[in-house]
């Protein structure tokens, strides 16, 4: 196998990543104008207003919570800070829809909170007002407490990278600690905070499980309802195009933000920040501020899911659930391996042949990161269903054989969707490892008779072994949790843990939905703990660089 063949294979991978996005756009643009008018005059204004409101709430909330908690655990010492600096990242292990199941069970009218309230006060159902969790505000809360770790991890890495000199100069000029933070530290960390908030926003517009469960009408739910409830493929494709445009706009803003600004570095002389100890009330207030997101985002939902699962009468060791886990693990494993192989080919092409073509190659491979799973699913389903119908009609007309759904009825279409969706995650994780390898290693390898494939197998992969394993793990867990593309594309006889949890919750069987949900959370904890270990083990500069790529991927 020659190096040129590896480069061509990299282009093939990118074509597979871009194809569903292009297909979704073409399906929408080729739709009937009457359908476009119907969409524009009826559902589009409502979906746009709801999605924008949700995006604004989640974006601002995650930026505030993530940056404040990151500053407190990085700069100060107070009771429990060592535990909290790791615990603050744990909510990232939860899929947002799993968080919604836990809090709905807890806060609904028959749940333990309202039941206890009525028992203590003696009130009847109509004697008091209680916030409705199944609402736009409830969906925003679920997404915020799950997604703020994006900002927290990136902001914490940025704060650790900053030199104390600028902060100390502000203090000597009479600025209080709060004003010094606002005027000096926060502006230097702005690119990291903005990047984390935009990642949270991208996840928000891609979310389906939470908004569908809370009956909040967004673009994501509209695509699914148009496809399955109304059977209107054209309307689904057109809504997918609208969501695709919005997602690409946000991705462009995120890339432009990183292009114009950089996280402030340590400078020529790096002085570590002397961490003062907050004593008395100040220390306990700081502890409470950092503890609240952990309680809301991890401790309470784990307790609720655990109690629900124990009372559900279901066992993970039953044949049915072992089948769900086997399906999920098989699907995630195959998708992770193929995605990482594709990422390695693209990364090798970009490293060995730098230039404009390689830059476009990387951009094309990363487009799936900016596109919700429902859009990719529609982009794959429309042309593949047409191809299946064409083949079936040809075989029946000429040979009297019904072929059925050869492609759309298989798991390989799901795998292709995952590869397109999560290629950026694998590529960023792989590149973060290769970025530490000096370029002259390639020249040394070639001079020792290791060209092309041998250079990749004997030099690049051994050096980037840890990054490759990290990429496999990130993609594996992302596929395990992915819901909208899985719901649209999965065969009827192939159920996964995510689909099972969603279906049980949709039928209001929340206690039973807790069982597969807990398994998904368990899988999600692994990459989160790896990220926390990365922060604690590396130097501040390396920590910021590695986390920037890892969080941008995940």
TrEMBL record:
<feature type="domain" description="ABC transmembrane type-1">
    <location>
        <begin position="48"/>
        <end position="252"/>
    </location>
</feature>
<feature type="transmembrane region" description="Helical">
    <location>
        <begin position="49"/>
        <end position="76"/>
    </location>
</feature>
<comment type="similarity">
    <text>Belongs to the binding-protein-dependent transport system permease family.</text>
</comment>
<keyword id="KW-0813">Transport</keyword>
<feature type="transmembrane region" description="Helical">
    <location>
        <begin position="192"/>
        <end position="214"/>
    </location>
</feature>
<protein>
    <submittedName>
        <fullName>Iron(III) transport system permease protein</fullName>
    </submittedName>
</protein>
<dbReference type="GO" id="GO:0005886">
    <property type="term" value="C:plasma membrane"/>
</dbReference>
<feature type="domain" description="ABC transmembrane type-1">
    <location>
        <begin position="325"/>
        <end position="531"/>
    </location>
</feature>
<keyword id="KW-1133">Transmembrane helix</keyword>
<feature type="transmembrane region" description="Helical">
    <location>
        <begin position="234"/>
        <end position="253"/>
    </location>
</feature>
<feature type="transmembrane region" description="Helical">
    <location>
        <begin position="83"/>
        <end position="103"/>
    </location>
</feature>
<feature type="transmembrane region" description="Helical">
    <location>
        <begin position="9"/>
        <end position="29"/>
    </location>
</feature>
<feature type="transmembrane region" description="Helical">
    <location>
        <begin position="136"/>
        <end position="155"/>
    </location>
</feature>
<feature type="transmembrane region" description="Helical">
    <location>
        <begin position="281"/>
        <end position="304"/>
    </location>
</feature>
<feature type="transmembrane region" description="Helical">
    <location>
        <begin position="360"/>
        <end position="387"/>
    </location>
</feature>
<dbReference type="InterPro" id="IPR035906">
    <property type="entry name" value="MetI-like_sf"/>
</dbReference>
<dbReference type="InterPro" id="IPR000515">
    <property type="entry name" value="MetI-like"/>
</dbReference>
<dbReference type="GO" id="GO:0055085">
    <property type="term" value="P:transmembrane transport"/>
</dbReference>
<keyword id="KW-0812">Transmembrane</keyword>
<feature type="transmembrane region" description="Helical">
    <location>
        <begin position="399"/>
        <end position="420"/>
    </location>
</feature>
<feature type="transmembrane region" description="Helical">
    <location>
        <begin position="324"/>
        <end position="348"/>
    </location>
</feature>
<keyword id="KW-0472">Membrane</keyword>
<dbReference type="Pfam" id="PF00528">
    <property type="entry name" value="BPD_transp_1"/>
</dbReference>
<keyword id="KW-1003">Cell membrane</keyword>
<feature type="transmembrane region" description="Helical">
    <location>
        <begin position="513"/>
        <end position="532"/>
    </location>
</feature>
């Amino acid at each position: 196998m020659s190096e040129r063949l590896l480069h061509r294979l990299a282009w093939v991978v990118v074509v597979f990543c871009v194809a569903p996005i292009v297909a979704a756009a073409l399906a929408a643009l080729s739709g009937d104008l009457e359908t476009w008018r119907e969409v524009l005059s009826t559902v589009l204004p409502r979906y746009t207003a709801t999605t924008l409101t949700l995006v604004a709430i989640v974006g601002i909330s995650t930026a505030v919570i993530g940056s404040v908690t990151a500053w407190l655990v990085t700069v100060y010492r107070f009771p429990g800070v060592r535990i909290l600096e790791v615990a603050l990242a744990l909510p990232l292990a939860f899929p947002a829809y799993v968080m919604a199941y836990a809090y709905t069970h807890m806060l609904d009218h028959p749940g333990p909170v309202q039941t206890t309230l009525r028992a203590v006060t003696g009130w009847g159902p109509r004697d008091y007002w209680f916030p409705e969790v199944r609402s736009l505000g409830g969906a925003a809360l679920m997404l915020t407490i799950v997604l703020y770790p994006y900002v927290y991890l990136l902001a914490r890495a940025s704060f650790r990278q900053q030199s104390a000199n600028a902060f100390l100069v502000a203090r000597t000029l009479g600025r209080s600690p709060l004003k010094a933070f606002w005027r000096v530290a926060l502006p230097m960390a702005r690119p990291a905070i903005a990047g984390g908030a935009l990642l949270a926003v991208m996840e928000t517009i891609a979310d389906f499980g939470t908004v569908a469960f809370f009956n909040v009408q967004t673009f994501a739910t509209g695509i699914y309802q148009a496809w399955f409830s109304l059977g209107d493929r054209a309307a689904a494709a057109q809504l997918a195009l609208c969501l695709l445009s919005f997602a690409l706009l946000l991705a462009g803003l995120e890339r432009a933000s990183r292009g114009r600004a950089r996280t402030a570095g340590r400078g020529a002389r790096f002085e570590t920040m002397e961490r003062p100890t907050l004593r008395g009330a100040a220390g306990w207030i700081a502890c409470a501020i950092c503890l609240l997101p952990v309680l809301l985002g991890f401790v309470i939902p784990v307790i609720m899911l655990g109690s629900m699962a124990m009372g559900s009468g279901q066992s993970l060791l039953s044949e049915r659930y072992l089948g769900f886990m086997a399906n999920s693990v098989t699907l995630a494993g195959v998708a992770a391996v193929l995605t990482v192989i594709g990422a390695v080919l693209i990364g090798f092409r970009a490293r060995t042949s730098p230039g404009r073509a390689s830059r476009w190659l990387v951009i094309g491979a990363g487009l799936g990161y900016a596109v919700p799973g429902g859009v990719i699913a529609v982009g794959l389903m429309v042309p593949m269903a047409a191809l299946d119908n064409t083949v079936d009609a040809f075989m029946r007309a000429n040979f009297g054989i019904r072929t059925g759904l050869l492609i759309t009825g298989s798991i390989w279409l799901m795998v292709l969707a995952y590869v397109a969706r999560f290629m950026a995650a694998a590529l960023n994780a792989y590149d973060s490892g290769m970025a530490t390898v000096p370029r002259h290693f390639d020249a040394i390898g070639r001079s020792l008779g290791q060209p092309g494939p041998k250079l990749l197998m004997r030099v690049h992969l051994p050096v980037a072994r840890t990054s490759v394993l990290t990429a496999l793990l990130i993609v594996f867990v992302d596929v395990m949790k992915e819901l909208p593309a899985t719901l649209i594309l999965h065969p009827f006889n192939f159920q996964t843990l995510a689909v099972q949890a969603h279906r049980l919750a949709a039928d209001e069987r929340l206690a039973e939905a807790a069982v597969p949900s807990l398994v998904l959370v368990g899988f999600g904890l692994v990459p989160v703990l790896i990220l926390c270990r990365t922060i604690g083990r590396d130097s501040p500069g390396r920590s910021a660089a590695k986390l920037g790529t890892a969080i941008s991927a995940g």
